[in-house]
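User: My instructor asked us to take a sequence, write out its structure as C-alpha coordinates, and then describe one feature of it. I'm not sure where to start. Here is the sequence I was given:
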Amino acid sequence: MTSSDQTPPAETGLPLAYHDAEFLDSDDARPIRILSEYLQPLQSFRTHRVHDTIVFFGSARLEEDGPLGAYYAQARELARLLTVWSKGLDGKADRFMVCTGGGGGIMEAANRGAAEAGGRTIGLNIGLPHEQRPNPYISKGLGFEFRYFFMRKLCSARWTRSSRSSRSRRPASSAGRCWCSSTARATGTRSSTSRPWSATG
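Assistant: Let's start with the prediction itself. The C-alpha coordinates for your sequence are:
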Protein backbone atom coordinates (compact mmCIF):
# COMPACT_ATOMS: atom_id res chain seq x y z
CA MET A 1 0.00 0.00 0.00
CA THR A 2 1.45 3.36 -1.03
CA SER A 3 1.61 6.40 1.20
CA SER A 4 -1.32 7.95 -0.70
CA ASP A 5 -3.47 4.93 0.25
CA GLN A 6 -2.77 5.21 3.95
CA THR A 7 -5.63 6.33 6.18
CA PRO A 8 -4.92 9.92 7.27
CA PRO A 9 -5.02 10.82 10.95
CA ALA A 10 -8.46 11.74 12.26
CA GLU A 11 -7.63 15.41 12.73
CA THR A 12 -11.15 16.66 12.00
CA GLY A 13 -13.01 13.83 13.68
CA LEU A 14 -15.13 13.36 10.53
CA PRO A 15 -15.46 9.80 9.19
CA LEU A 16 -13.99 8.85 5.86
CA ALA A 17 -16.69 7.91 3.35
CA TYR A 18 -15.47 4.32 2.97
CA HIS A 19 -15.54 3.89 6.77
CA ASP A 20 -19.14 5.10 7.02
CA ALA A 21 -21.19 1.91 7.50
CA GLU A 22 -24.52 3.72 7.22
CA PHE A 23 -23.54 5.22 3.87
CA LEU A 24 -22.13 1.93 2.53
CA ASP A 25 -25.47 0.23 3.25
CA SER A 26 -27.49 2.96 1.54
CA ASP A 27 -29.05 2.97 -1.93
CA ASP A 28 -26.50 5.54 -3.11
CA ALA A 29 -23.62 3.18 -2.32
CA ARG A 30 -25.08 0.22 -4.22
CA PRO A 31 -22.45 0.48 -7.02
CA ILE A 32 -19.70 0.22 -4.38
CA ARG A 33 -21.27 -2.90 -2.88
CA ILE A 34 -21.63 -4.48 -6.31
CA LEU A 35 -17.99 -3.75 -7.18
CA SER A 36 -16.89 -5.12 -3.79
CA GLU A 37 -18.59 -8.45 -4.56
CA TYR A 38 -16.30 -8.75 -7.58
CA LEU A 39 -13.05 -7.43 -6.13
CA GLN A 40 -13.12 -9.31 -2.82
CA PRO A 41 -13.33 -12.81 -4.40
CA LEU A 42 -10.78 -11.73 -7.02
CA GLN A 43 -8.31 -10.77 -4.30
CA SER A 44 -8.94 -13.99 -2.39
CA PHE A 45 -8.52 -16.15 -5.48
CA ARG A 46 -5.16 -14.50 -6.17
CA THR A 47 -4.08 -14.97 -2.55
CA HIS A 48 -5.07 -18.65 -2.59
CA ARG A 49 -3.57 -19.28 -6.06
CA VAL A 50 -6.81 -20.32 -7.72
CA HIS A 51 -6.10 -20.64 -11.44
CA ASP A 52 -9.40 -21.98 -12.75
CA THR A 53 -12.43 -23.90 -11.57
CA ILE A 54 -15.01 -26.52 -12.46
CA VAL A 55 -18.45 -25.33 -11.38
CA PHE A 56 -21.27 -27.59 -10.22
CA PHE A 57 -24.84 -26.30 -10.37
CA GLY A 58 -27.69 -28.22 -8.79
CA SER A 59 -30.62 -28.35 -6.42
CA ALA A 60 -30.13 -27.15 -2.84
CA ARG A 61 -33.14 -29.16 -1.65
CA LEU A 62 -31.94 -32.60 -2.70
CA GLU A 63 -30.95 -34.74 0.30
CA GLU A 64 -28.37 -37.50 0.55
CA ASP A 65 -30.83 -39.95 2.14
CA GLY A 66 -33.85 -38.78 0.12
CA PRO A 67 -35.52 -40.40 -2.90
CA LEU A 68 -33.08 -38.68 -5.25
CA GLY A 69 -30.02 -39.43 -3.14
CA ALA A 70 -28.37 -41.25 -6.04
CA TYR A 71 -27.73 -37.88 -7.68
CA TYR A 72 -26.05 -36.63 -4.50
CA ALA A 73 -23.76 -39.68 -4.58
CA GLN A 74 -22.96 -39.14 -8.28
CA ALA A 75 -22.04 -35.49 -7.77
CA ARG A 76 -19.91 -36.37 -4.77
CA GLU A 77 -18.03 -39.07 -6.67
CA LEU A 78 -17.56 -36.94 -9.79
CA ALA A 79 -16.10 -34.09 -7.72
CA ARG A 80 -13.81 -36.53 -5.93
CA LEU A 81 -12.51 -38.00 -9.19
CA LEU A 82 -11.99 -34.57 -10.77
CA THR A 83 -10.05 -33.42 -7.71
CA VAL A 84 -7.84 -36.53 -7.69
CA TRP A 85 -7.06 -35.84 -11.36
CA SER A 86 -6.44 -32.10 -10.93
CA LYS A 87 -4.10 -32.61 -7.97
CA GLY A 88 -1.83 -34.58 -10.28
CA LEU A 89 -1.36 -31.66 -12.66
CA ASP A 90 1.89 -29.70 -12.67
CA GLY A 91 2.08 -26.09 -11.60
CA LYS A 92 2.21 -23.90 -8.51
CA ALA A 93 -1.41 -22.77 -8.75
CA ASP A 94 -4.34 -25.09 -8.10
CA ARG A 95 -6.04 -26.15 -11.32
CA PHE A 96 -9.68 -27.01 -11.93
CA MET A 97 -10.84 -26.54 -8.36
CA VAL A 98 -14.41 -27.60 -7.61
CA CYS A 99 -16.64 -24.56 -7.12
CA THR A 100 -20.33 -24.51 -6.17
CA GLY A 101 -23.04 -22.15 -5.01
CA GLY A 102 -22.03 -23.08 -1.47
CA GLY A 103 -25.37 -24.47 -0.29
CA GLY A 104 -26.79 -27.92 0.35
CA GLY A 105 -27.90 -30.70 -1.97
CA ILE A 106 -25.82 -31.12 -5.12
CA MET A 107 -23.65 -28.18 -4.10
CA GLU A 108 -22.78 -29.81 -0.78
CA ALA A 109 -22.13 -33.13 -2.50
CA ALA A 110 -19.62 -31.57 -4.91
CA ASN A 111 -17.77 -29.65 -2.18
CA ARG A 112 -17.76 -32.79 -0.06
CA GLY A 113 -16.32 -35.02 -2.77
CA ALA A 114 -13.53 -32.55 -3.50
CA ALA A 115 -12.70 -32.20 0.20
CA GLU A 116 -12.63 -35.98 0.63
CA ALA A 117 -10.05 -36.16 -2.16
CA GLY A 118 -7.84 -33.75 -0.23
CA GLY A 119 -8.52 -30.78 -2.47
CA ARG A 120 -9.50 -27.24 -1.69
CA THR A 121 -13.02 -26.32 -2.67
CA ILE A 122 -14.93 -23.08 -3.23
CA GLY A 123 -18.42 -21.97 -2.18
CA LEU A 124 -20.21 -18.90 -3.54
CA ASN A 125 -23.11 -18.56 -1.13
CA ILE A 126 -26.08 -16.23 -1.46
CA GLY A 127 -27.95 -14.76 1.47
CA LEU A 128 -31.49 -16.23 1.50
CA PRO A 129 -33.91 -16.25 4.43
CA HIS A 130 -34.53 -20.00 4.59
CA GLU A 131 -32.87 -22.78 2.60
CA GLN A 132 -29.45 -21.42 1.62
CA ARG A 133 -26.69 -21.89 4.19
CA PRO A 134 -22.97 -22.51 3.56
CA ASN A 135 -22.15 -26.20 3.68
CA PRO A 136 -19.30 -27.41 5.96
CA TYR A 137 -17.06 -28.69 3.14
CA ILE A 138 -15.99 -25.30 1.77
CA SER A 139 -12.28 -24.60 2.34
CA LYS A 140 -11.24 -21.85 4.73
CA GLY A 141 -10.77 -18.57 2.91
CA LEU A 142 -12.69 -19.79 -0.15
CA GLY A 143 -16.24 -19.27 1.08
CA PHE A 144 -18.01 -16.09 -0.01
CA GLU A 145 -21.35 -14.50 0.84
CA PHE A 146 -23.12 -12.60 -1.94
CA ARG A 147 -25.97 -10.12 -1.73
CA TYR A 148 -26.55 -9.88 -5.48
CA PHE A 149 -27.46 -12.93 -7.55
CA PHE A 150 -25.92 -11.56 -10.75
CA MET A 151 -22.55 -10.96 -9.07
CA ARG A 152 -22.59 -14.50 -7.72
CA LYS A 153 -23.23 -15.79 -11.25
CA LEU A 154 -20.49 -13.57 -12.68
CA CYS A 155 -17.95 -14.88 -10.17
CA SER A 156 -18.94 -18.47 -10.88
CA ALA A 157 -18.22 -17.90 -14.57
CA ARG A 158 -15.13 -15.68 -14.16
CA TRP A 159 -12.64 -18.48 -13.49
CA THR A 160 -14.55 -21.45 -14.80
CA ARG A 161 -13.30 -23.76 -17.53
CA SER A 162 -16.44 -25.81 -17.24
CA SER A 163 -20.01 -24.84 -16.48
CA ARG A 164 -23.61 -25.42 -17.38
CA SER A 165 -26.94 -24.12 -16.16
CA SER A 166 -29.05 -26.97 -14.87
CA ARG A 167 -32.81 -27.25 -15.00
CA SER A 168 -32.76 -30.73 -13.55
CA ARG A 169 -31.79 -32.21 -10.19
CA ARG A 170 -28.85 -34.04 -11.71
CA PRO A 171 -25.29 -32.88 -11.02
CA ALA A 172 -24.30 -30.52 -13.80
CA SER A 173 -20.77 -30.18 -15.05
CA SER A 174 -18.72 -30.50 -18.21
CA ALA A 175 -15.16 -31.46 -18.98
CA GLY A 176 -12.32 -29.70 -20.75
CA ARG A 177 -11.69 -26.14 -21.80
CA CYS A 178 -15.25 -25.07 -22.41
CA TRP A 179 -17.71 -22.51 -21.28
CA CYS A 180 -21.22 -21.47 -22.03
CA SER A 181 -22.18 -17.80 -21.88
CA SER A 182 -25.39 -16.23 -23.10
CA THR A 183 -23.53 -12.92 -23.42
CA ALA A 184 -20.91 -14.46 -25.70
CA ARG A 185 -23.58 -16.05 -27.85
CA ALA A 186 -25.53 -12.81 -28.08
CA THR A 187 -22.53 -10.67 -29.01
CA GLY A 188 -20.76 -13.26 -31.17
CA THR A 189 -17.54 -12.98 -29.14
CA ARG A 190 -15.34 -16.04 -28.67
CA SER A 191 -12.35 -16.77 -26.46
CA SER A 192 -9.20 -18.09 -28.15
CA THR A 193 -8.82 -20.74 -25.44
CA SER A 194 -12.43 -21.81 -25.14
CA ARG A 195 -14.89 -23.78 -27.21
CA PRO A 196 -18.52 -22.73 -26.65
CA TRP A 197 -20.58 -25.81 -25.92
CA SER A 198 -22.45 -27.12 -22.92
CA ALA A 199 -22.59 -30.61 -21.51
CA THR A 200 -25.87 -32.37 -21.06
CA GLY A 201 -25.05 -33.65 -17.59
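For the description part of your assignment, you could build on this observation: The chain has six helices and seven strands. Try explaining in your own words what that tells you about the chain.
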